[in-house]
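Dear U.,

Please find below the material for section 3 of the report. The protein was modelled together with magnesium ion; I have listed the sequence and SMILES used, followed by the predicted complex structure.
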Amino acid sequence: MIQKIALKDFKVFHNQTFELTPGTTSIVGPNGSGKTSILEAIEFALFRQITRKEKTIKGVEELIRHGRKKATIELEFVAPKNRRLYRVVRMINPQRTSADLYLEKRTEPIESGAKRVDTEIISLLGMDRHAFAALTYVRQGEIDLLSRLSPKDRQENLYDMMGLGVYSKTESKVQKALREMKREIESIDESRARLTEIQDRLPTENEVDNAFTSLDALRAGVGNEDGIKPLETLLMKVKESVAKVQEELASSDLTDKKDELEEDTNIANHLKQLLSSIPGVAEEQLRPHIRHEARAIFLRIFGDRYSDFMIDDGYDVALYNLHGNRVSLRAASGGEDVCVNFALRVAVNTALQKYSIAGSPPGVIILDEPGAGLDAQRRRWLPEAVQGLDSVEQVIVVTHMEELKESADRVISLTPQGKGRQPLVDVSE
Ligand SMILES: Nc1ncnc2c1ncn2[C@@H]1O[C@H](COP(=O)(O)OP(=O)(O)OP(=O)(O)O)[C@@H](O)[C@H]1O
Ligand SMILES: [Mg+2]
């Protein structure tokens, strides 16, 4: 849950603090008044990244208020992992973004530095930015994102929502390590083959010893030390080479190292198998609940037009009209799309809350203009649906809809003040 957002020189905001409470908060105001910017500040505070129109904003300088050198975002949130209050402070500089994470009201950070803070927050929330985008933050214009995806991508997205994406990401890391170990084993095998080939071409130790004996005999017979010396030097070099090749062949780099690598490969293979089976098992437990919830929500809204809503095992979604005809998602209307997506997200949230396997859900849902594309009749349903999100502790909804304003527990209104000035913020309960 989010308790407080304090912004300094972040986009349109010069210096503005928003206090948030459990329940529903509506953020209202005309176009360009800074509504989405507040949500982006939340995303940036948590993940040091902002996605707009499905693209990550590359330059952080876009976030700094025009004419200023740096921006600061401070965010207080309750971590789902341990229900404790944390405060993250990020300073955005064009060159470098710094970050500090504090526990409760302490003044010494528990973690400092952008990367370290990122990692700690992901662990506290139990989700990364993909999971956040899939489960928690429905961006403006993306409410129908799930229906636009192929079933495979939709499944991946839902896995992310369930916090299961981490397994496939870990699995690809293990796969990478496996490839590296394979390469190392191959290079050890190559070195060994090369050394053996050299050894085959060199005389054996015995042969070298015999040559030395012959040399001694020669020295005794000829008595010409100067003539024999070069032969002796040559033989010494051959002896050294023979010893060196033997030593390298017996070295632990070629023997123990390979054994170790082979053992690691075995372990990694087991791990990979395990990682690939976990999401399926976890998802199988959740799937019936998700289907049940999503169907109930969808039919509550579209029961006058549809008789059924099905999600198959491959995550293809189909609607059935009152005559029993199948309507694929592609053929559904924009408004129906919005509801399918709303139903799916809420269903996953509820299922996670009730039957959580992968950890507690974040307890927040953020919706930016969820009513876009809904007709007057369905719009009436939306406030009820948002209020009915009893599985979610906090709902933050950006809207132009009067209906949503009225049903909220608190309304934050932004009124633009003209060029260069920050919007006037009014809060009513
Ligand atoms: N770096 C910046 N400094 C100052 N203002 C900025 C900066 N970047 C963007 N803006 C302005 O911030 C305004 C707020 O945008 P935002 O997306 O938050 O509006 P919104 O209230 O969500 O509007 P809509 O209802 O149209 O979605 C825009 O008008 C934009 O021009
Ligand atoms: Mg907006």
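For the text of the report, you could mention the following: Residues 11-12, 29, 31-37, 62, 64-66, 140 surround adenosine-5'-triphosphate (ligand 1) (CB under 6 Å).

Regards,
Y.
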